[in-house]
Specification:
Elements (H helix, E strand, L loop, with lengths): L3 E5 L4 E3 L5 H4 L2 E5 L4 E8 L2 E6 L10 H7 L5 E8 L1 E2 L2 E2 L1 H8 L3 H10 L3 E10 L2 E2 L5 H13 L7 E3 L21 E6 L8 E5 L2 E5 L4 E3 L3
């Protein structure tokens, strides 16, 4: 594995509105999950689950750590969620994050977590940070198509147009929003997202520690 934790994920900044339709056509849109950012490192050296701020969450989510074992040399970027009673339960996710050891195992048995994956940063020793998003996306979807990734992993499937904003509380729970990633090969490190009607942009690759 070339990338070493912790790495700094791409972060969003708020904009007043989504880009106009002509420009938005250059982006791949995804529904935003209500969870915690999670970068998963898995390979011959073991599994490590990294939070947005670089903390090690492996001990708090042993169910996801076990599911990650044996996947090969991968670094995955996604959103950690806890489905519960037909929705994504963010407070329950926060409760799970506070437990380790036997407490984490008990919580995992009662409230299993899942990961919505939206990017592939490294695969089998090849760092993909400088490849266009469309190429990384195709490789990521291939992992699901070949059965390498499956539950509790899911792939946030892109859309070409924004879905209608739901009335009241969305079925996924939490804040309604979109994640939009630049699909043009000429913009490999650009991604955009919208939350609650305001859009966010991020325009750099994650910062990575050099190989050790």
């Amino acid at each position: 594995m070339q990338l070493r934790p912790p790495i700094e994920p791409m972060l969003a900044r708020t904009l007043p509105a989504l880009p106009p339709p002509a420009e938005l056509a250059r982006y791949s849109l995804e529904a935003k999950s209500d969870g915690h950012r999670l970068i998963t490192f898995t390979g011959s050296e073991g599994v490590l689950l990294q939070t947005r701020r670089g903390a090690d969450a492996t001990g708090a989510f042993p169910d996801i750590a076990r599911a990650s074992a044996g996947l090969g040399e991968l670094v995955l970027d996604g959103e950690l969620v806890v489905p519960h009673q037909g929705r994504l339960d963010f407070p329950l996710l926060q409760r799970r994050a506070r437990h380790t050891g036997s407490g984490a195992e008990a919580m995992a048995a009662q409230f299993p977590a899942a990961v919505v994956v939206f990017d592939l940063l490294e695969a089998e020793g090849t760092v993909l940070l400088n490849q266009p998003y469309v190429e990384r996306r195709a490789l990521l979807e291939g992992l699901f198509d070949r059965g390498v990734l499956g539950p509790p992993w899911s792939c946030a499937r892109p859309q070409t147009t924004p879905p209608p904003r739901p009335s009241g509380s969305p079925p996924t729970g939490g804040t309604w929003g979109l994640r939009a990633c630049a699909s043009s090969p000429n913009h490999p490190d650009t991604a955009r997202a919208s939350e609650g009607g305001a859009s966010c942009a991020r325009s750099r690759a994650p910062k990575a520690s050099p190989p050790g």
